[in-house]
Amino acid sequence: MLPDILAGLSNYSGLAEIMLGCLSGWLGSAAKNRLERRRQEIDAGQLENQQFRLALLRERDLTDRTLGLTDEVDALWRRLAAREAVVGEYHTLIVQARRRIHDLEGQQGQPLTVFEALPAFPPLREMPLGSTERAPKGVTRSNPIRTEKPP
Question: Where is this region: Disordered (predicted)?
Answer without folding.
Answer: 125-151
